[in-house]
Specification:
5-stranded mixed sheet, elongated
């Protein structure tokens, strides 16, 4: 017992200065904070309306020094999205201080979703504290999704309507065929047909089987056999095919197509055969003279109710000493001529030098053709041609020389650069040219026309300009300072000018000014300037060889245009461990936080590198934004007792800590407390000794009480 008391006294003597030093240091332990959860979107996806099985990736971020445990995420999609029931409530576990948890949920997009940015909202809850004091906290967040509206549903098309026989005898069978095409980028469903006309109710044509689905861009051939009624009178009969279908969102679309076929009582074609006649003919030129060539044009018409098939035309019956045919053959193929249709054929002929003038010379035209049943027909037509004697020409007065009206055109122009930034002044320089070689143009007024958008405004200048004169064939250069609207969207815009001018003419010795005007239009490409702003950029000033370090920053798209296919990369002697970071499409005004790890693979020295934003702008042109950075790489620290092997901290020697490790995400006050606490070895020893002293005192008190109890028992 005496040894124990002596040891306690010895420890108290040793620890008293240490405790005093710790008390005098004024060091405070860091205080834990309330968890602060937020939703961070890794990238903004772009999806099509009606698409399914899309994946939304996001992170739950703890922005505090406290652990958030029992984190529950409640998903609240708007009417545009559908999420599975098992994903409406997600248990995300615990999130460490300044840590993240990555989550992915599948979702479908409604077909009727309009173009634009839509969102999915989240409710977040977590717990913090210890077993004596548990608190529950709630937060909210959201993610963005860009939706492209599906194309407008076009009406399906019925085409290639045909019959096995264009003409049938009443009571005979025939086959109707047609093609149904879906011109849309989405499928059509429940395709049904209805036929109105003479074949309604006929055998095998009362009902055409429905088609369950016609794929996007596909075509389906439909055919059905039918029989006409035996009592059907002869004639031409119209009918109509109507088709209905529904699209993916349940809307109904319909289309129809008409056609006709003929019904006869027998195979004899007499009263109702095709009839081809020569409707008219002409000779060009009309006053062709002997020894000259001319073109004979013959116009044909089918007066019958059936198509005249394989129509052939032959020219003959003329005196070859007077007329020569300049064709390889006298026969021409006019193919098929439908009922009441017209066609024409042409022959090149030459009149001989002995051709009689003012006399009608005969020719004969032979027509052969057939009908749908293979019956052949032959018709003839008589033609006459005539060469008219020329009349004496009346002496005409001397004509005045004819001059072309002078025109002013913009021969060339430049805006100084390929693209103009909205809200940035530029000089539009163009060259006016007088195209006339005969006239000067004078008193020229040029007026800048304002279109409906009023994109361009002259700077320190008026809308009109005056030029006294441009000589014949001459040019004049004008430069106009213009300012495009700062709100102008990226596009190609037209700039129009109205040009009024005069020129002096002389006619019959009389001079007079003639006024004229033209309108010229130029076009320039205007783009919204890209403005990406970085803030809270954290890059350590000093890193060590072979180590890793973190780069983090907030970025904000302050441009008036969206940025598409954005990725963030490093350019120079460093690169992200995970490679370039794909961020997707970034809307105007969008901001987010970024962080990435970098491996130091270079020797000691000072290095510069760029944070590079690569993207496509609103004109689908590749663009970049760079942010320059500097970092110093130092050699890794070594133990300095043994020049050959370095120090072994277990064998003694001073431990040199060049610089405390600071968490950049902690508030300054907490960093200072941790630095002071960890960086002072005496403080650590003092705290340990105090703890040992308390334990020993408790043991001594217990031993004394037990000994006294034993002595009291012995006395009794």
């Amino acid at each position: 017992m005496k040894k124990i008391i002596s040891f306690i006294i010895y420890m108290v003597m040793i620890l008293t200065p240490t405790v005093a030093t710790f008390a005098a240091s004024g060091i405070e332990m860091p205080e834990f904070q309330t968890p602060a959860l937020s939703v961070k979107q890794t990238y903004v996806p772009t999806v099509d309306a009606g698409s399914t099985n899309n994946q939304l990736e996001f992170e739950i971020v703890n922005n505090s020094f406290s652990i958030a445990y029992d984190v529950i995420v409640t998903v609240s999609p708007d009417n545009c999205f559908t999420v599975g029931a098992e994903y409406y409530i997600i248990k995300a576990g615990s999130v460490s201080p300044y840590g993240t948890v990555k989550l992915t949920i599948p979702y479908d997009v409604a077909f009727d979703t309009r173009n634009g940015v839509h969102n999915i909202n989240f409710g977040l809850s977590c717990k913090s504290g210890d077993i004596f004091n548990i608190q529950t906290h709630s937060f909210t967040g959201s993610t963005n999704i860009i939706v492209n509206e599906i194309e407008k549903i076009n009406t399906p098309v019925i085409s290639n309507v045909s019959f096995e026989n264009k003409s049938v005898i009443a009571g005979e069978k025939n086959t109707l065929s047609f093609t149904v095409s879906n011109p849309n980028s989405t499928d059509l469903y429940n395709v049904s047909f209805n036929i109105d006309g003479i074949i309604t109710g006929a055998t095998d044509a009362e009902h055409i089987e429905n088609i369950d689905v016609i794929k996007a861009g596909a075509s389906v051939k439909v055919s059905t056999e039918f029989t006409t009624f035996t009592e059907t009178p002869e004639g031409l009969y119209d009918f109509n095919i109507t088709m209905t279908a529904t699209d993916a969102i349940g809307e109904t679309h319909s289309t129809s197509k008409g056609a006709y076929f003929t019904v006869t009582k027998s195979s004899e074609f007499t009263e109702h055969s095709p009839k081809v006649i020569v409707d008219s003919y002409s000779l060009s030129p009309t006053g062709v003279q002997p020894g000259k060539t001319a073109t004979l044009k013959i116009n044909l018409t089918n007066l019958g109710i059936f198509t005249a098939e394989n129509v052939k035309v032959s020219l003959g019956g003329y005196d070859s000493t007077q007329i020569s045919l300049r064709e390889v053959t006298s026969q021409k193929n006019a193919r098929n001529i439908d009922m009441n249709a017209k066609t024409s054929v042409e022959y090149s002929i030459e009149l001989s030098k002995i051709f009689p003038q003012d006399t009608q010379v005969p020719m004969v035209l032979t027509l052969t053709y057939s009908d749908a049943l293979g019956n052949f027909y032959t018709d003839e037509a008589n033609l006459t041609i005539m060469s008219v004697s020329p009349t004496e020409e009346i002496e005409k007065p001397e004509e005045q020389p004819v001059y072309k009206t002078p025109k002013i055109i913009i021969e060339s122009f430049t805006a100084g650069r390929d693209t103009i930034n909205a809200g940035e002044e530029f000089n539009l320089t163009f060259v006016l040219k007088n195209t006339s070689e005969d006239f000067d143009v004078e008193n020229i007024t040029i007026l800048l026309q304002n279109d409906s958008t009023n994109i361009f405004t002259p700077v320190s200048a008026s809308y009109s300009y005056f030029i006294e004169k441009i000589p014949a064939g001459g040019t004049h250069e004008i430069s106009i300072p213009l300012l495009p609207k700062i709100s102008a969207e990226s596009n190609i815009y037209a700039i129009s000018f109205s040009i009024d001018y005069e020129y002096l003419t002389k006619s019959n010795g009389i001079s007079a000014y003639v006024q004229n005007s033209v309108r010229e239009t130029l076009s320039v490409k205007v783009v919204q300037p890209i403005n990406i702003e970085l803030s809270n950029v954290y890059i350590p000033e000093i890193v060590y060889e072979g180590d890793m370090f973190n780069i983090s920053f907030n970025y904000n798209n302050k441009s008036r245009s969206n940025l598409y296919f954005l990725n963030i990369d490093l350019e120079g002697d460093f690169s992200f461990i995970d490679g370039k970071q794909e961020m997707g499409s970034i809307p105007s005004g969008y901001s987010d936080m970024f962080d990435g790890m970098v491996q130091v693979g270079v020797p000691a020295g000072e290095y510069t590198f760029d944070i590079v934003f690569n993207f496509k702008d609103a004109m689908n042109k590749d663009a970049q934004f760079k942010y320059p950075c500097t970092v110093i790489v130092e050699s890794a620290p070594v133990w300095n007792n043994d020049p050959m092997m370095g120090d072994d901290p277990m064998m003694g020697g001073d431990i040199i800590i060049d610089e405390p490790i600071i968490d950049p995400m902690l508030p300054t006050a907490q960093n200072d407390s941790i630095i002071a606490f960890i960086g002072n070895p005496i403080t650590l020893i003092a705290a340990s000794c105090v703890l040992v002293t308390v334990i020993i005192i408790v043991i001594v008190i217990v031993v004394k009480k037990r000994k006294k109890a034993l002595e009291d028992g012995a006395d009794e």
